[in-house]
Design a protein that fits this description.
By secondary structure, this protein is an alpha/beta fold. The chain has 20 helices and 32 strands. The structure holds 5'-O-[(S)-ethoxy(hydroxy)phosphoryl]adenosine.
Length: about 650
């Protein structure tokens, strides 16, 4: 074996710095970029947009801010699909591999799609969508597993100027239904089924529930499994049949920079998920440059982002970003531990993955499975590691660094949100420093701060709330679909409309602006990296006849980070293990298995304020043995003593 290159060296205070080899290779190596970009962020992003993307027409105005709204590249015209495919097909990258798709079953062949292959399929599917009556601005639902048709469908929408709204395939039919109703989709693209740890999941059954009562006229079904499905005549069509006769070219629609590229639903603090709107030019600009610079991807690299395309990470780093820069990526269909706990490491070894991006929850899972699994494989092809989705603790960071990166590779901890479209806070490979548990600095050209309750910036080391400042990065959301009030209230009201409020706690690690993220400060949970609100789980439980009232809080979990724990008051039925199981099933049915409560705790009473509001904070403190604070203002302080016994509270009250 060739001696692997060391991409990092030790720095001061337990940090790591890029090695000379990495500095020689990296796109960005001079820290002066931060200062330079901040001199004129608007001009900086304008330059990036010009250099990164192909525009049919240049914009008239780079940035406009009318609180709480902002726009980028106004008057500019482009097409996302053209930028992801056509321009590569017109270059030497025409026959470069875009996607290596790896099926879950080990005896099945990989699908290798070059840029030209993808281009041809996307063009055909664009024509299919057109034939089904999809027009510019119409919404198309995509409910697909991790098969290449998911990128094809997204890009085909972008090509014809339709707005895609992807729903994670492990969400339930009811979750799909809620989102399809809100987004008023005309067409749904789904599959017959998919593999999960060797088993077949019948996706079409869920899709049928999802379509009920919506405006969806046509359902296109990819045949992945060949399992039995019911096709509704006139409504349901097989993907392969429609594609057979589809024309080979569709001229990309000319879109405005501010036209919506997609709407992706995410959880907020209420039971109803919100449709986050992303605009074409700004989103693509941030996707392009963050992909290229954060992960230092070059043409010879092989990039693997393990996130499902149903989440924002999969949108930006499993579809748009890598394709925009003409990279080659891995797209794996299945579970990380199928057939064995080394499937991911085997894939890295077999294909020679050079840049690997995953979530802390996955890292913790692998830690638990044992060091012997990665040890079985030659992981020396890896150059850069990334994480996303939740704060990464020191142990997980060090394990990832040592056992996956061989102590040679930087770990790029990227902080961002569905709302921000692309990463916003992380170290850059050629600059560093790489600091365990510290994400890093704001991406060049972005401005953040950490404020206390009163809105004053906090000194280094003190905790506060992370905000973004004007000019707001181009990839950030342009609104909440059909709900401008919610947009304003959630993001622009805590500190007024000059600050984008992230709902994340944070502190500065040093004077240069390196930031440690400490987690959400609202009722949003990150369960195994998946974003979920406590209210959604409560709504699901309340739909069960035996539940009269309930409260859900997040409880720390060794591997998943957090799990929902439900406090339930029953009616008509006595608490029992059977009922517990029913309630867990109920949540799976209404939301999906990701939302499965870790614990159901039956109680007689819930702590409430005099105005009747359930005090979830007290429940959370009870669960985690923290000080309860002032409980005298409760309408029922006596409930606390009982609850302490039930949860075995060891705190000091
Ligand atoms: C959390 C995922 C700490 C954060 C891209 C944020 C993180 C929420 C990190 C958004 C990180 C994401 N360190 N926390 N590197 N990355 N988060 O919308 O709380 O699924 O607000 O987007 O994840 O989750 P979302």
């Amino acid at each position: 074996m060739k001696k692997p290159i060391k991409w990092v060296k030790k720095g001061p205070r337990g940090t790591f710095l890029p090695s000379d080899d990495l500095k020689k290779k990296a796109w960005v190596t001079n820290a002066s970029i931060y200062k330079k970009a901040l001199k004129n962020p608007v001009a900086f992003w304008g330059k990036l947009a010009r250099e990164g993307l192909d525009w049919f027409k240049k914009w008239k105005k780079t940035y406009e801010w009318k609180p709480p709204y902002f726009k980028w590249f106004i008057g500019g015209k482009l097409n996302a699909c053209y930028n992801a495919l056509d321009r590569h097909v017109e270059s030497w990258r025409r026959n470069k591999v875009a996607i290596i798709w790896i099926p879950e079953p080990v005896n099945e062949e990989c699908r290798i799609l070059t840029y030209y292959d993808l281009y041809r399929e996307v063009n055909k599917f664009a024509n299919v969508l057109k034939k089904l009556g999809v027009k510019k601005g119409d919404r198309v639902g995509i409910y697909l597993p991790m098969i290449p048709e998911v990128q094809m469908a997204m890009l085909a929408c972008a090509r014809i100027g339709a707005i895609h709204s992807v729903v994670f395939s492990a969400f339930s039919g009811q979750s799909l239904n809620q989102r399809m109703n809100d987004v008023e989709a005309k067409v749904l693209v789904t599959a017959d089924g998919y593999y999960r740890k060797g088993k077949t999941i019948n996706l079409k059954t869920n899709a049928d529930i999802g379509v009920k009562g919506t405006k969806i006229k046509h359902v296109v079904v990819v045949k992945r499994m060949g399992n039995d499905v019911k096709m509704v005549k006139g409504r349901d069509h097989w993907w392969h049949e429609l594609m057979k006769n589809a024309k080979l070219y569709y001229k990309p629609e000319i879109m405005n920079s501010e036209d919506t590229l997609f709407i992706l639903y995410t959880s907020g603090t209420t039971g109803k998920p919100k449709g986050i709107i992303h605009a074409t030019g700004g989103y693509l600009t941030q996707a392009y440059w963050t992909t290229k610079w954060d992960f230092d991807i070059h043409d010879e690299d092989l990039f693997w982002c393990t996130a499902d395309v149903g989440w924002i990470t999969g949108h930006t780093y499993g579809c748009y970003g890598p394709l925009l820069i003409g990279a080659t990526m891995i797209h794996y269909e299945g579970a990380p531990n199928y057939p064995e706990c080394d499937r991911w490491w085997e894939i890295i070894e077999n294909h020679g993955v050079t840049i690997f991006y995953t979530a802390p929850t996955a890292i913790r899972m692998f830690m638990q499975w044992g060091n012997e699994w990665p040890k079985k494989h030659d992981l020396s092809s890896i150059r850069i590691l990334g994480t996303v989705g939740e704060p990464i603790d020191n142990d997980a960071w060090m394990w990832y660094f040592k056992h996956i990166g061989g102590g040679r590779c930087p770990v790029i901890d990227t902080w961002w949100q569905t709302e921000t479209g692309g990463t916003l806070i992380n170290a850059l490979p050629g600059i560093g420093p790489f600091i365990p548990t510290v994400a890093g600095r704001g991406f060049p050209g972005t401005k953040n701060d950490i404020l206390d309750e009163s809105g004053k910036p906090v000194p280094v080391g003190e905790g506060g709330y992370l905000v973004m400042k004007n000019p707001f990065p181009p990839g950030m959301l342009r609104g909440v679909f059909k709900n401008p009030k919610r947009y304003k209230k959630t993001y622009w009201s805590v500190y007024g409309d000059k600050y984008y409020y992230t709902s994340d706690g944070a502190r500065f690690w040093d004077k240069t602006g390196n930031i440690r993220l400490t987690g959400r400060v609202d009722d949003v949970l990150k369960v195994a990296g998946h974003r979920l609100s406590t209210a959604e789980v409560e709504d699901a439980l309340n739909k069960h006849d035996a539940v009269i009232e309930c409260a859900v809080v997040g409880s720390p979990h060794k591997i998943k980070g957090e799990v929902p724990v439900a406090f339930v008051i029953t009616t008509g039925r006595k608490p029992s293990d059977v009922l517990k199981k029913e309630l867990v099933k109920q949540v799976e049915k209404v939301i999906g298995p990701t939302a499965r409560p870790g614990e159901i705790i039956f109680v007689e009473d819930l702590p409430k304020t005099r105005s009747g509001k359930i005090m979830r904070r007290i429940l959370k403190n009870l669960m985690t043995d923290q000080t309860l604070g002032n409980i005298t203002t409760l309408s029922n302080p006596e409930s606390i003593e009982k609850l302490k016994k039930i949860v075995g509270y060891k705190g000091s009250g």
